[in-house]
Amino acid sequence: MESITGTDLLIFFGFGLTILTVSILAVLFEDSEKTIGRLPFLSWIAALLLLPGIGNLAGGIFAGLAVSLALTYPVMQRYVQRARDAGMSKTIAFLSIIPLVSLITSSILLIVPGVASARTSSEAPAVFSNAG
């Protein structure tokens, strides 16, 4: 078993700080007014949980960290979009940055249904707008 060197600890700390920074920036800058339903949100959460582990198995711990970093921005955007769909503020997405709290916030976002007015509209979808 290999021992962890000081350089390894600095790299881990750097990845952790970078992931934290990217998470905060993703929540701050998500202003697209997009929403996402529960099932697509669940698939993003599953990707965040599974793909870094696969990267870790395939290329080592630093590959897993790199995959985590690559997924952080889009996943945190999906937290904001899901919160918007559920009629909540960005605060829940900010709370999701905290590791153990994210289990609770993710569960809340998966349980709470979307706001009906955000999803349904009296207008036909654009695909059907020219239908005769």
Please count the helical segments. 6
Q: CA-to-CA gap between the ends?
A: 70 Å
Number of E-state strands: 0
In terms of quaternary structure, the protein is single chain
Rounded radius of gyration (Å): 18 Å
In sequence order, what are the helices and strands, one letter per element?
A: HHHHHH
Mean pLDDT: 86
Biggest pleated-sheet summary? none
The helix/strand class is mainly alpha
Low-confidence stretches: 120-132
Percent of residues in helices comes to 55-70%
Strand content: under 5%
Give your account of this protein's structure.
By secondary structure, this protein is mostly helical. Helix 2 packs antiparallel against helix 3. The termini are far apart.
Pick out its properties.
132 residues, mainly alpha, disordered C terminus
Helix/strand layout:
Elements: H1 6-29, H2 38-59, H3 61-85, H4 91-95, H5 101-111, H6 116-119
Helix pairs in contact: 1-3, 2-3, 2-5
Write a compact overview of the structure shown.
With 132 residues, the chain is mainly α. The protein is built from six helices and no strands. It has helices spanning 6-29, 38-59, 61-85, 91-95, 101-111, 116-119.
